[in-house]
Amino acid sequence: GSSWLQEVSISHPFVKVQFELGFDARDYALNCMQCHRPDVPNFKDMSKIPPRVHPPGACGQSVFGKAHSYEQMREAGAVYGARIIIILRLHVAATCISSWLHFKKHTKDIVTWTPDEFHGQLLKATNDNEYLMAFPGKSLVPSFVVFYEDMVRHPGDTFYEMQKFLRVPLIRRDDLDRLHKKASTKPSIYYLQHLEGVQKKETELNSPFKDMVTDPKWDDNAPVEETFRRICAVHPDTKARWRGGSCGDWTGLI
Q1: Percent of the chain having pLDDT more than 70?
Q2: Conformational region of residue 178, where left means phi above 0, alpha means psi within -120 to 50, and beta covers everything else
């Protein structure tokens, strides 16, 4: 999901993103006036990125959530007017499996965690999500939350609302609704070698992950709006929005 989001973002001529570099708060990294605009291929459609506009209307960095603190983001917001885009995959079982396949893909094509090991990974992924969900409220930085499950169903609308949040000229990309990753359409849970054992364990525990590992269509009913309301409840001044709305009266357009 993060790769798709990055590539769609840089397809906008006013947006520049540095990919997966540790958070860099130095002036030349966050100041759009000094932001370099290399011409790189977009391997999703093998075409060149549209002509660049300089300085860009929005420039940013793609970083991992645990790599920085709420305080760092609050400072970046105060000094540079920074805004945060957060991507969350609510199906944490799929997150765990995707991570395994990403880092082990050259040696493994099946996830070999035991049911106990997999349960531990589910708890860790849930904690990581909780950490990210607290960013809008605890950093008090304007935030746009992208839910993976919602982005897959509504890619064009997600991109459009994200542009409004970044305050860049609005463009429509009709091809986004036809954009698919070059990956198997098989549900993630079917990559688990010990799927039956995992399903039995989560059912016996009556854990919150039970439906994720037994229902291959869990994504279709992911609790997106409910989760966003939880994000808004963290702090009364939370400045956050997602494709379907915002916290309180804050629109993210000011």
Answers
A1: 71
A2: alpha
